[in-house]
Amino acid sequence: MSRLFLVRTLSILASIVLVLQALDLLSESGNILAVSGNGQAQILTYVGLRMPQIVAFVLPFSVLLGTILTLITMNQNSEIIALKAAGLSAHQVLAPLLLASLGVAIVSFAFNERVATRATATLDQWKAVDYGPLPIDRGDRSNVWVRDGDDLIEVAQVKGRREQTRLGGITIYDRAGGNLVSIIRAPSGHRVDGAWRIGPASRFDVASGDLIPMGTITVAKDVRPDQFTLGSVNADGLAFWDLRRAISDLHDAGRPTKSLEGTLWHKLSGPLSAILMPLLGAVAAFGIARSGKLFVRAVIGMGLGFAYFVADNFALAMGNLGAYPPFLAAWAPFLLFFLIGEAVLIRTEE
């Protein structure tokens, strides 16, 4: 029973991923090939980075459909009736699917942590440069903007954390009274004695139009490292423990973290949603197939499953807006539909 469930789940997963990847590639291939020098290799790179995101998104749907398809087949062949006639309760009939879905949830969590987050971080950096040269370092911050008084500082790439923070591609817009006075550029910079040492720097004077070499200079004495490293936290591109450390750093810096905390908890509740699918789809397993209500039961199972995904996305969105506490936003739909599934199963079969 578990083998049948896993085979059908993986088959549905492969089919859906193939279709969604083809549709996504049709919409993005033009943007990728618009960059000079990009070709088939870049298309394949995009597929390799985008597919883990699609797999992570589709896997719970595939478990739901695999559950319903498995149980419908067993019901039509009177296997469920035979199991119940042998003295098994409804929960005992579903036990193999629940154990198999627990394994799927564990694999899903590991896949998201080791593959999907890294692919997301790299793909986001690649999109930030409009599919230009692919960034090599994963997990770095890119295109970070920081204000220093009236001045604006743009950093193309930020590496490291705290006092080990390294800046690359620095542009400082020196302003006075809202007017641009000069533009200072430097390829690299690092933290020294509470300030930032950048170089070799060059200064473009707006009034005269002169470009003046300045060598190594010290700037932005009032800018903290966390303003660069925490200026843009990509929650989907960080693994669970990395995101937890980022949230801790943001909290220490006095930044709001509610939306990130909701995403952090959802990294656990999301994969565990696979365990709910056999319970929500169990309505398709029971009832006599020849009664003509098997299709209705399958539709009810799919309706319960898709209602969970709608409620989950709604709660997560409300958590990002601050209307729900982070823990409630991530776990309330899971607990609610677990109780609904149990209530339906006990009321109808137990």
What would you note in describing this structure?
One of its GO terms (cellular component) is ATP-binding cassette (ABC) transporter complex. It is a multi-pass membrane protein. This protein is α+β, with helices and mostly antiparallel strands. Helix content is 59%, strand content 18%. α8 packs antiparallel against α9.
List the main descriptive attributes of the protein structure presented here.
alpha+beta, elongated, 6-stranded antiparallel beta sheet, 350 residues, 6 strands
What's a concise summary of this model?
This protein has 350 residues and is α+β, with helices and mostly antiparallel strands.
Strand content: 15-25%
User: What's the average pLDDT?
Assistant: 86
The shape, in one word, is elongated
Supply Rg: 26 Å
Number of helices: 9
Q: Enumerate the spans where pLDDT stays under 50 for 5 or more consecutive residues.
A: none
